Amino acid sequence: MSAARRFLTRWLALSRKEVIHIVRDVQVVYMALGMPVVLLILFGYAVSFDLERLPIGVVDQDGTPASRHLTEAMTAGDAFEVRERLSDASELESRFRQGKLKAGLVIPEGYGRKLARGTVSESQILLDGADGTTAGIALGYAMGMSQAESRRMLESSGLAPELAIQDRVRLRFNPGMKSAWFIVPGLIAMILSIMAVMLTALTVAREWERGSMEQLFSTPVGRLEVILGKLAPYVVLGMVQVLLVVTMGTVLFGVPVRGSLWLLFGAALLFLVGMLGQGLFISVATRNQQVATQIGFVTSMLPTLLLSGFMFPVANMPVPLQVLSAVIPSRYFIVVLRGVLLKGNGVDVLWPELMALAVFALVMIGLSSARFKRRLD
Amino acid sequence: MAVAPPNPEHAPAVLEARAIHKSFGRMKAVCGLELAVHAGEIYGLVGPDGAGKTTSIRVLAGLMGADAGEARVDGKDPMRDRVAVRERIGYMPQQYSLYGDLTIDENLAFFADMFCLPEKEYRERADRLLALTRLERFRSRRADALSGGMYKKLALSCSLLHRPRLLLLDEPTNGVDPVSRREFWDLLGEFTHEGMAVLISTPYMDEAARCHRVGLMHHGRMLVEGRPGELVRGFPHSVLRAVGGDREGLTARLGVHPRVLALSPAGSRVRVVVERGGEAEVRALISEQGATCEGAVPDFEDLFLARLREEES
Ligand SMILES: Nc1ncnc2c1ncn2[C@@H]1O[C@H](COP(=O)(O)OP(=O)(O)OP(=O)(O)O)[C@@H](O)[C@H]1O
Ligand SMILES: [Mg+2]
Q1: Distance (Å) of CA B230 to CA B34, B126, B212, B213, B236
Q2: How far apart are CA B224 and CA B208, in angstroms?
Q3: Fold classification of B8-232 (topology level)
Q4: Which of A127, A215, A308, A364 would suit a FRET pair with A110, their CA atoms being 20 to 30 Å apart?
């Protein structure tokens, strides 16, 4: 038998054995297919940054057509919903305390009159600042809407609009500023990396703990064969997960697929091999299932959450963290996901990220088989 | 019974070990192991817990590097010539090492693939091994659902698939019932006929008697080595069997007697190994305790217990 035939024979046998381990341990199957679904739903809805129907109280002390117009404009979108109409601004405070309202719009008396005279008229927006994130986003909405409203009025009154800076901001790729579009690609990367690392973190350590490694190492098997044999079944399982989460992302959260799915799956394959390799490396190095699980979880979830650009843009990080993020594969995978899904980017744009993913995968497999000692001492 | 070829020591040595040392930190697990096992020979490595049997076998299998000394399997170094050596050895570790969630057939097929056996050869070999071990009926049973004895026979079969030149067995019959133990040894006899060399470690003295040669290990050192029959015949001390009397008082007194080398209660009797020349003295002591006493033929256990005792004092 040629060396290549021997390699293939052993690789295949090791993969087949690993598949048997997986399918006979129903828990692994449940975990592999159930967890991504649960995580995506949980995080997808919980981490949503969208403001939908934030309860607002309106104190209209002016009562003119102009003030009614402002109220309508403010609450035209889905962001605010008029929950109460109050007569005095002081009542807002107690509603905030009770949590009944998150925002208030106060239009003082004389608003319409000043407007008609062409002088500056004021309205007041109050926000419950206890929930900083919500307040920040609400503020953004409110400012945007009042600016749009004043520009509209300036234009209709023919008052020199060209004097002001005309910033016509248009959001490309995600015009509705839907946070799901932004979050789901990051979530996909996070879920896949946690799952991949955790699945393989256990495999080698389990063989050490159960004693089968000693028997295996007394045969002529090579370490690359063992590593690849362990990898192959999990790559297949991982690709099923990719299919699952991408489908859910588009169906549940309406994330578009503007680019090539083949490119997406190709990138996912590279990413998976890298993360599975990371899990294997941890398993090989620790030889202990419990330690491997803990290290696996921390090294897959935290970097993806904090350093990959999922939550916080890489460009805003302190330089040392930016450097660190360069070796986090999720960073590149998220760029590819957002690129393919939202922007319809192709290989011409994404090749540096694809290269980075491929390098990481190769390094991880190389490291785990180098670190994999066929010795018991 | 393992029937010895006329003189396996004259066959070529399949396994040789010279002055092997291995320590774990300050613990010297193996000190200067010298060993040769020839084709067709069963060599028994006997010793109490922690004697260094497992460590020796692992070093010889190339699973651990020795600190000093050299090992040769068919003239090849297990650490440097890993693949060649691994193709020549069959190894059965002390602890459970097969895949519990795989069936008998799946385990066999897996290990056959690790040795890249051609399909046809694997089928023939597996069928023969399963017939010999009488495991045929259980082919689709998972390994972790087998009894202890069946599991060991499966492990033996897995290590024999590729017709190794050298078989390394680490306490293969530990925790197995006596009937299965006998079966196991009969199987071994079959395979040594084919010229395979076997190194087997065991804590059971009766098993030592079934080997062509045995070595007694203690604290990493080889204390005695030889053919079982010759060793027993050359035993210089005598053995007494004391019956009746006050057993507790008897064992207490004998236990501290300077000429008593070993003491083992066996049912209602106490077996006593007495240093040469001390027999009269000890007989007198036994009668004093109201027990009767008779001479017995020394066996292996006596020999080893006495030797361990001499070593410790
Ligand atoms: N991997 C290891 N690390 C540290 N110490 C070890 C290791 N393996 C064995 N030892 C120590 O070396 C000594 C010899 O152990 P070894 O397992 O070789 O004995 P043994 O004769 O096989 O005993 P047993 O009958 O218990 O199997 C023991 O004291 C043991 O504690
Ligand atoms: Mg042992």
Answers
A1: 20, 38, 11, 10, 12
A2: 13
A3: Rossmann fold (3.40.50)
A4: A127
Q: Which atom of ligand 1 is nearest to the CA of A376?
A: 1
Instruction: Return the residue whose CA atom lies nearest to atom 29 of ligand 1.
Output: B50
B82·A374 Cβ contact <8 A:
yes
**Alpha-carbon distance B146 to B153, whole Å?**
10
pLDDT at B3: 46
Residue B118 with chain A: CB contacts under 8 Å: 1
For the record, the structure tokens of A167 come out as 């910033």
* Domain extents in chain B: 8-232, 236-297
Distances in whole angstroms, Cα of residue B280 to Cα of each of A176, A328, A377, B84: 107, 83, 51, 58
Quick one: which atom of ligand 1 is closest to the CA of B217?
21
Q: What is the distance of C-alpha B191 from the center of its chain?
A: 16
Atom of ligand 1 nearest to the CA of B220: 14
Q: In sequence order, what E strands does B95-135 have? A: none
Ligand 1 pocket, B29 CB below 6 A?
yes
Neighbouring C-alpha atoms within 13 Å toward the C-beta of A253: 31
The CATH number fitting domain B236-297, selected from 3.10.690.10, 3.40.50.720, 3.30.70.100, 1.20.950.20: 3.30.70.100
Six-digit token string for A254: 């309406």
Whole-structure pTM value: 0.81
Q: Where are the beta strands (DSSP E) in chain A?
A: 54-60, 80-86, 103-107, 124-127
Structure-block tokens of residue A283 = 């398993």
Kindly give the distance from the C-alpha atom of residue B46 to the centroid of ligand 1, in angstroms, as a whole number.
14
Q: B residues 65-94 near A, CB within 8 Å?
A: 65, 82-83, 86-87, 89, 91-93
Residue with tokens 């309205």: A123
**CB nearest to B65's CB, from A1, A6, A375:** A375
| pLDDT 10s digits, B249-266 | 888 888 888 888 888 887
Model pLDDT for residues A252-303, shown as the tens digit of each residue: 888 888 999 999 999 999 999 999 999 999 998 998 889 999 999 999 988 8
ipTM rounded to 2 decimals: 0.87
Contact check, Cβ <8 Å, B101/A25: yes
**Which residues in chain B are closer than 8 Å to A25, comparing Cβ atoms?**
101
Helices (H) and strands (E) in chain B, counts: 11, 13
User: Considering Cα of A185, then A186, then A189, then A194, what sign does the dihedral take?
Assistant: negative
Ligand 1 atom 28: the closest Cα is on which residue?
B50
Query: Considering CB atoms only, which of A13, A210, A377 is closest to B114?
Result: A13
Q: Are A96 and A138 in contact (CB under 8 A)?
A: no
Chains A & B: contacts with CB separation below 8 Å: 81
What domains lie within chain A, and their CATH numbers? 3-47+178-376 (no CATH), 54-156 (3.40.1710.10)
The predicted-structure confidence for B73-107, as pLDDT tens digits, reads as follows 999 999 889 899 999 999 999 999 999 999 999 99
Which stretch, A16-20, A72-76, A192-196, B11-15, has highest mean pLDDT? A16-20
